[in-house]
Structures are given as C-alpha cells and as structure tokens.
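Example record for the data management plan.
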Amino acid sequence: MKYRMAAALLSLVGVFVASYLYLYKIGKIGTMACGTGGCEAVQTSEWALFLGVEVSLIGLVGYLGLFLVALAGLQPPMVARRGVALLLVAMSGLGVAFAIYLTLLEVMVIHAICRWCVGSAIIIILVFAASLLDLRGPDASRGNSAAANT
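Corresponding structural encoding:
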C-alpha cells in the first residue's frame, strides 16, 4: 500500500508540473521560470503538439488519471486488488515510453532541454517504479485474503 501511496503523491506532483506547463502554453502564465530558455524553445516548437493535442495537456490528463487510479486503489475494498496495480503499471509505463519519445525529440530534433520536462520524465519514471513495486509487493500478491482479514 505504501507504494500505491507514493504513486498517488508523485502523480499529484506531476499534475502540478503539467498544469504549470499547460497554463503557460495557453497563455495564462506570462513567462516560464526555466533558467535556460530551453523550456520556451520546447514549448513553442512544432513538437509541442501530439496528434493535434498539446503535450502538456496529455501529461496533465495522464497524471490526473494516475492520481485518481492510485487514490481509488487506496480505498479499503480496492487495496488488495491486483488489477489496480496492473492498471498503474500500464498507465505509467505508457507515460515512460511517451517521456522517452519526448526527451529524444528535445535532444535530437529541437536541440533544447526543458527542465520542467525533465522533471516530469523523472516523476513518471518514479511513478512507474512505485507501481512495479506495488505490483510485486505483498499487498498486491495477497489477492482477496487481505479483504477477508479486515
């Protein structure tokens, strides 16, 4: 359960990071606090859209989904369910793959590094790690016996 809590907390941090990036992208924040200028180059590049949707919005929806699944998985009837851990692994794994794709674009195509994007990539990797630990941990492997003991 502690890994699921960690996934929920990290996902909430991801919601804040993605919200900041999205608010900048839609013009609600004047300047971005980045320090290198790489963030603006990345955010204003043609690669800031994926299938016509803002990448920061995809991140926001993804982190919000992860947060809600992890939070729901902390409720007593859901704690022992392996399906929650599997869903967290699948969702965060997809997020890691997307973060790798975006990081490769930053390095190889855009030639600029956004610190906020790197931070988001680290967060999703940590969510994935926590989800994997939750999947193989004793809480996830007990099945329904944990529910019977409560």
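Summary line stored alongside the record: Residues 48 and 54 are 6 Å apart (CA to CA).
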